[in-house]
Design goal:
Length: 192
């Protein structure tokens, strides 16, 4: 359930909504690639990076909440660091964003953002920047930490766009479909 917004937060949120900035939800088959939420128009209208968050479609309500909270949180941060801890939680753990490697900006992940920039007349001299939001597993482990219970599936669900040349459809973990889907459900559903 969304938290109530104070007057300033409501103003910031409304400015984003009216500017033509927004978010897209890309749903992929869990057998081939993780689904994701990606912003557009943030770099054009507000000089902010675009953001991307991976997971499973069952997280969509959480993605919508995270998107609303991210709008307000970006207004309170003086500068977004290459690795940024946010006051936004998923399953009781804060989200962390990491700057996306430039080779992944034109790899299909940010098509709407790039289209928005082209339409606004922005050239490559002012390149797109983006951050990937990461969520921790139930134990508070992030995908780059090896010790997680389902760490291989966790890393597949959140491809490391901070590394060069990550592509949609990079191989999912070699497991039977039922086990893979069960681990996705466990990682993405706070109620399980």
């Amino acid at each position: 359930e969304p938290r109530p917004m104070d007057a300033h937060a409501r103003y910031v949120f409304d400015a984003f909504e009216k500017s033509g900035s927004g978010v897209s939800f890309v749903v992929n088959d869990v057998e081939t690639a993780p689904s994701y939420m990606v912003t557009y128009g943030w770099s054009v209208n507000f000089g902010l990076p675009e953001f991307i968050l991976f997971g499973d479609p069952m997280m969509r309500l959480d993605w919508q909440r995270i998107y609303r909270e991210l709008i307000v949180a970006t207004d309170t941060v003086p500068a977004i660091e290459d690795v940024q801890r946010w006051p936004i939680e998923y399953r009781g753990h804060p989200l962390v964003s990491v700057k996306v490697h430039r080779s992944n900006l034109a790899a299909g992940w940010f098509e709407e953002a790039l289209f928005h920039r082209k339409r606004a007349g922005l050239s490559d001299e002012a390149p797109l920047t983006a951050h990937q939001l990461f969520w921790a597993d139930r134990d508070g482990k992030f995908p780059w930490e090896e010790a997680g219970r389902h760490s291989i599936t966790h890393r597949w669900l959140q491809p490391p766009l901070y590394e060069p040349d990550v592509r949609l459809g990079d191989t999912r973990p070699r497991k039977d479909s039922l086990r893979h889907r069960a681990e996705v459900l466990i990682l993405c559903n706070p109620g399980l």
